[in-house]
Amino acid sequence: MNWTLRLLTAAFLTLAPVRVDAADLDGLRKKAEDGDAAAQYQLGEILATGEGAPQNFVAALQWLGMAAEQKEPRALYRVAAMMHEGEGMQRNMVQAGAMFQSAQKGLLELAQKGDLDAASKLGTLHTTGVLGKPDLEEGLKWIRQAAEKDWAKAQYDLAGHLLFGRGISPDKNKAMQWMTRSAKGGHPQAQFGLGAAFANAEGMGRDLKAAKEWLLKASRTGDPKLAGHAKQLLARVEAGDLRELPDVKVLAKSAAKGVADAQYRLGAIHRDGVGMAQDYKKAAEFYEQAAKQGHALASYGLGGLLVGGLGVEKDAKAAYKWWLAAANRGLAVAQLDLGILLIKGEGAEKDNAEGYKWLTLAARAEEPRVKQRAIQVRDNLSRVMKGTDIIDGLRRARKFEPIKQADK
Length: 408
Description:
Elements: H1 3-7, H2 22-33, H3 37-49, H4 57-69, H5 73-85, H6 93-112, H7 116-128, H8 136-148, H9 152-164, H10 172-184, H11 188-200, H12 208-219, H13 224-238, H14 248-256, H15 260-272, H16 280-291, H17 296-308, H18 316-328, H19 332-344, H20 352-362, H21 368-382, H22 387-399
Helix pairs in contact: 2-3, 3-4, 4-5, 5-6, 6-7, 7-8, 8-9, 9-10, 10-11, 11-12, 11-13, 12-13, 14-15, 15-16, 16-17, 17-18, 18-19, 19-20, 19-21, 20-21, 20-22
């Protein structure tokens, strides 16, 4: 498994960079402040990507939220995508799915009028399966349409489909051609993928000079995570360290031997589409293998797929079962989501005291986002709970002893 397949993340819900100069940004902000939904969306997209302004998820969501309230379909899609991936907010795939559904009609109308951004997003809705069963033929139709008219995000996505043979015959050479067009169009993920390809002689001859140039461009993106990956790989290329990274084939061999962590990691790779076509069904299969051995993260991941109906039939009761398993092993994010299920009565009988217990445990999390969300939900819940139920929930939390995580 080469660098391109491992490091090129085919995460099709990712943001499309929007590049503007300072004057354009000021004009855009004024329009947004005047209530222009399209301007609010564009400003939110810029702030979310960090391309053209410092990255600021809080401000991005404020502007995107304003546009979404006006039913701006691209804004609805973007908020849903951020919610689906847990970017700038707590991940909620159920609510994200509903927002994707709300965006679909408007995106189709815009795409039919020639809006390339909408066409690219519409294609992604169909290919990822966030609307239900993936429709690769319909999705690729819109992605190709936008790609052929030089929409960089669509070109990047089309390259991923060609590289991994997802819904289309694999063609490494064509994939690299589209990747190059996308990179030249300023798409940072394409720049990173192209740099990795040149470093590893994937789809073209090895060219370390070109690899450095593209990785340097990618390292300047406003996305700190992607920039970090680019800087790390750039440093390795400059140091002449071209050793292969851990191979998925190695993980597969370990998973076949029953190693729970390898099964979980393969599930995560398939879920996120890292180095291969995104495949929720396979993700669920690997997650379940690890979850049955008591792997907390795998149990949580499987529950998330069941809640969202991704690769499996929607099943709130089964999701509750796996999130309970993860929560009992001390996984704070599972405790948070389990608490929310219980106070909503989804997947299990409504039980505010038990929900309060899990939210109290999640509020002890080291991860700030989980901790903050748990405290917020718990405090809101306490306003409508009986004092005796709160005391009961606290008593249950004090008695909690986590089950030991699987060793495999």
